[in-house]
Amino acid sequence: MNGATGDRAVAEAAAVLGGAHEVTLLAHIDPDADALGSALALGIALHRRGARVQVAFASPERVPESLAPLDALGLLVPPAEVTTAPAVLVSCDAAEPRRLGRLARLLDTAACTVMLDHHATNPGFGDIQVLDPGAEATVVLAHRVLVEMGAPVDADVARCLYAGLVTDTRGFRTAGPAAYRLAAELVEAGADPAVLTRTLMDSHPFTWFEGLGGALARAVLEPSGLLHTTIPLADVRRYRPEEIDSVVEVLRTAVEAEVVASIMQVDERRWRVSLRSAGAVDVAAVATALGGGGHAMAAGFTREGTEQDVLAAIRAAMPHYGERSEPNGGSLHDVRHHP
Ligand code: AMP
Ligand code: MN
Ligand code: MN
């Protein structure tokens, strides 16, 4: 989003939301702090202006435990209770309609859809598109809309915005100056960084160490620079998404890795994959080729098949893979124990 187009979209979004009596806000499936924080920040502000507000996501059934405190006003409703034809629908942090799961059908029934997102792979959807791949998080765009609306950023709103900002920038590692300024504003408004980072990023039950240990022991570093591990269905069911999703962040600390893949078994033959890049490889392109999407440095996709099918698909979609692999046509060596 640049210049007039972006500013116009923000102004249009603010005009529609500011005048709305009934708003349904959606986060993407498997919601994270950016998706839910954006939806709840806008939802809380709109509720305080007197609008009837629903916030929802299609799956899983329950809100992740670490995100539950963001819903200070109890605006979250189960997907079955969402109005079938909302006056105004807001899609938050979803790179494409499919990321809304079965609630994507509301895009066809809503009188007006506002889409807020920052994914490079977003093709554009909705009547008003506040789409800025340069924004570190969707909450940055939600904040722009709130400012344009003249809505006060109180402590409850600030917490939601801060939650998305600190997680999508991985603790401000990838934040630009404007994001730091926004963070300062949010802390002044009442967001407590120590409490939020502890809850959102640094809290795991002790029992998780066994699961993490297994995931790390199974990790394989291939000659191409692809580092991957698998998390079996039993572990995916045993631990919270907070634990399962954190594995990729440990993997990415391996200095030898160019691309890391956390391959999570979500059903017998269904795998959700988180990809991270050290910089040279655009994993958004890799994920898009495999039916997903995301950002250049962090992306994901879900795929059917065996674990080996998924791995083969990742290898095939990675650029220059062949140049660094063994000459025997693809059999790969585990170089974990190499110096
Ligand atoms: P994750 O690995 O789940 O943390 O996702 C990394 C980034 O890729 C996030 O910005 C996600 O929103 C995005 N992403 C993950 N899976 C998909 C998908 N299937 N389609 C589009 N974007 C995705
Ligand atoms: Mn997200
Ligand atoms: Mn995001």
Automatic annotation (TrEMBL):
Residues 239-315 form the DHHA1 domain. InterPro entries: DDH_dom, DHH_sf, DHHA1_dom, Oligoribo/pAp-PDE_c-di-AMP_PDE. One of its GO terms (molecular function) is nucleic acid binding. Residues 23-164 form the DDH domain. It holds the Pfam family DHH. This is Phosphoesterase RecJ-like protein. It comes from Pseudonocardia cypriaca.
